[in-house]
Amino acid sequence: MQIFKVGGAVRDRLLGKPVTDIDWVVVGATTEEMLAQGYRPVGADFPVFLHPKSGAEYALARTERKSGRGYGGFTFHASPEVTLEEDLIRRDLTINAMAEDDQQNLTDPYHGQRDLEARVLRHVSPAFAEDPLRVLRVARFAARYADLGFTVAPETLDLMRQLSESGELEALTAERSWKEISRALMEDQPQVFIQVLRDCGALKVLMPEVDALFGVPQPEIHHPEIDSGIHTLSVLEQSARHKQPLTVRWACLLHDLGKGLTPEDEWPRHIAHEHKGLKLIKVVNERFKAPKDCQELALLVGQYHTHGHRALELKASTLLELLQSFDVYRRPQRFEEFIAACEMDARGRKGLEERSYPQADYLRGAASVARGVAVQPLLEKGFKGPELGEALKRERLKALKAYKENA
Questions:
Q1: Residue 202 in domain
Q2: What pLDDT, on the 0 to 100 scale, is given for residue 71?
Q3: Could you give the CA distance from residue 403 to residue 407 in angstroms, rounded to a whole number?
Q4: What pLDDT is attached to residue 74?
Q5: How far is the C-alpha of 199 from the C-alpha of 351, rounded, in Å?
Q6: Over 278-289, what HEC string results?
Q7: Domain limits at 299?
Q8: For FRET with 157, which of 56, 83, 275, 307 sits at 20 to 30 Å CA-CA?
């Protein structure tokens, strides 16, 4: 029995990055031998065991072959005869197909260390094209390591393109896709993830609504970058630069989908794109079964982001309607995330990345004023039920008018 550290832990150590998750592979062992040493079995599809003391996962070396469509369409074979090299060759990228023993002696049959030094994301073998999830994984690694100068090897991009055209991407479950998408959006350069998906044709398959934004012009006076797709990438880039949470990043990706529906003869204007985009945002939300908080914020940002930009010009009544739509009284954090998404939208424009956004403090102040209207005096006056709601609305409107005059 031999035990090796494999995959990401080896890769990140060689890159000088913090090692968080460690994967272990056991070569030359049987299930019975693992059980005899106190390991506890947990694997459903192939033999995985928990270490008796640390609880870490140890997998028996295995081979796999394609047996059906999608991410789950594989048959696995684990036995003491499977070599370390055979286990490593089934992995996605060369930089993930290295192993080391407890003395840090490196086993690198597919030249992962060379590709690490060359800053290249390269597939290990033609079997790469058997797993559609790898298209998303490679794009995610491209986003993770973009700061280090990593790019996708042309021949790997070709295989990703073949996968995108094969129909295999449609076999991915919403849950698997969302797991990769959400992780990629939280990388330091999430816009690279979207760009790589577009480069290999996968964006058109997975998110045609986002892909449709590329090549669609916007008024240059507001958008020096002109192209709606480029703008979306820039907004996503800003959301990562400003360390926004997943909810905000998801909303940033989807906020302008309505512009992809504008007839060409109306370009570069996009009248009512906020409203038109809502049905597309709903479709994308449902396609990936995005978490409820991500879905809700994406829809609200899509509908109201231009209100955010025009905050200082809004009538007090419109401002109140905006605050009511977000339920700022019970859910203040959601409104704060809306403000953040609006600010990222304003900054995601060529040459305007450092612009100030006074609308943010103005909107926060308005929410604070509306929340500050006390209910007790109205109760003491005898208001109750629907009448109390209307009276509260009138008092909040009055407070917002005073706020607007003094701002």
A1: no
A2: 47
A3: 6
A4: 47
A5: 25
A6: HHHHHHHHHHCC
A7: 207-361
A8: 83
Give the separation between CA 262 and CA 273, rounded to whole angstroms.
7
DSSP states along 57-110? EEEE-EEEEE-SSSTT-EEEEE-TT--HHHHHHTSSBGGGS-EE-TT--EE-TT
| AA letter at 19 | V
Largest interatomic CA distance in the chain: 84
- Spans of the chain, pLDDT less than 50: 67, 70-71, 73-74
Would you state the pLDDT for residue 65? Answer: 66
- Shared domain check, 266 and 147: no
In this prediction, residue 44 carries a pLDDT of: 67
Position 391 scores a pLDDT of: 93
182 contacts: CB under 8 Å, gap ≥ 6: 246, 250
Are 352 and 304 members of one domain?
yes
CB 158 within 8 A of CB 123: no
Instruction: Verify that 80 and 180 share a domain, yes or no.
Output: no
pLDDT reported for residue 21 = 83
pLDDT of the residue at 45: 65
Contact predicate 325/304, CB 8 Å: yes
Quick one: angle between helices 174-185 and 133-144, nearest 10?
A: 10
- 125 and 100, same structural domain? no
At 294 the pLDDT is 98
Asked, for residue 366, whether it belongs to a domain, the answer is no
Q: Which residues have C-beta within 8 Å of that of residue 82, sequence separation ≥ 6?
A: 27, 60, 61, 62, 63
Angle between helix 246-254 and 174-185 (nearest 10) = 100
Answer yes or no: pTM beyond 0.90. yes
Cis peptide before 268 (omega within 30 of 0): yes
- Cα 17 to Cα 101: distance, rounded to the nearest angstrom: 19
Alpha helices (H) in 255-384, listed in sequence order:
273-287, 292-309, 316-326, 332-347, 359-371, 376-380
The per-residue pLDDT for 67 is 46
The CATH number assigned to the domain holding 351 equals 1.10.3210
201, 112, 43, 136: CA torsion to nearest 10: -10
- DSSP-derived secondary structure letter, 3: E
Return the ∠ at Cα 45 (arms to 44 and 46), rounded to 5°: 100
Task: Return the pLDDT at 94.
Answer: 98
Radius of gyration of the chain (CA): 26
**pLDDT of amino acid 42:** 87
Which amino acid makes up residue 301?
V
If asked whether residues 356 and 217 sit together in one domain, one would say: yes
